[in-house]
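hiii so um. not sure if this is the right channel but i have a protein structure encoded as tokens and i wanna go backwards to a sequence. like what aa goes where. can anyone help
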């Protein structure tokens, strides 16, 4: 059984699942221990590589969770190996809430959502931060693609477990980049049609001029 299920389905959660009649549905049957992290497959790696943003949750000393958005070009969240993801963290609003929370508790949750493909992936992990100057090889690996800005730290997340979430109720939305890629063939066809229309207009003008010349010649004769 998945490591994610063992972490997410606490006794209270299991109690509610049984109350609602979903306690034995699919992967919720926790019959075997899951002591090892869930390995990422090529499917998860491809999904992560196509994302330009995700939500990162951490917990502070008060016990309150904090959710932060991280964005960048597709692929800025790198899959280092089957158990690790990482990204170059650039300077933002300088509140450093997530960074401070990680000093007390390294547990994080990631919510990765792809509106265009109506898919989402949930992930648990342990996050550590590294100084780019003290980890030059990792910094180079995460350099491209990465978010524009001054890199303050490298965030490495050891993945404990993950689960694909139901796509129901995800509203399909498309970024400017995705729309540009999808509309590129149409725009090319429109540009070609406009060019053909201009050439047709020029031909009609030339034909009209030739007809006038021919009429003039006939009148002279």
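sure thing!! here u go:
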């Amino acid at each position: 059984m998945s490591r994610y299920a063992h972490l997410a389905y606490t006794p209270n959660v299991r109690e509610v699942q049984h109350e609602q009649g979903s306690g034995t549905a699919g992967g919720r049957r926790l019959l075997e221990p899951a002591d090892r992290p869930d390995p990422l497959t090529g499917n998860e790696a491809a999904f992560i590589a196509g994302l330009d943003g995700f939500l990162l949750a951490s917990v502070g000393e008060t016990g309150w969770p904090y959710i932060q958005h991280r964005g960048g070009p597709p692929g800025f969240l790198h899959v280092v190996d089957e158990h690790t993801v990482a990204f170059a963290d650039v300077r933002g609003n300088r509140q450093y809430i997530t960074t401070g929370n990680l000093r007390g508790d390294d547990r994080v949750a990631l919510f990765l959502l792809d509106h265009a493909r109506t898919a989402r992936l949930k992930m648990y992990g342990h996050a550590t931060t590294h100084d780019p100057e003290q980890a030059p090889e990792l910094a180079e690996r995460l350099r491209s693609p990465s978010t524009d800005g001054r890199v303050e730290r490298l965030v490495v997340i050891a993945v404990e477990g993950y689960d694909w979430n139901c796509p129901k109720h995800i509203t399909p939305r498309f970024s400017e980049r995705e729309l540009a890629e999808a509309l590129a063939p149409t725009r090319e066809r429109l540009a070609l049609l406009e060019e053909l229309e201009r050439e047709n207009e020029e031909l009609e003008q030339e034909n009209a001029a030739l007809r006038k010349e021919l009429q003039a010649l006939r009148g002279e004769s």
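oh and The chain has a mean pLDDT of 89.
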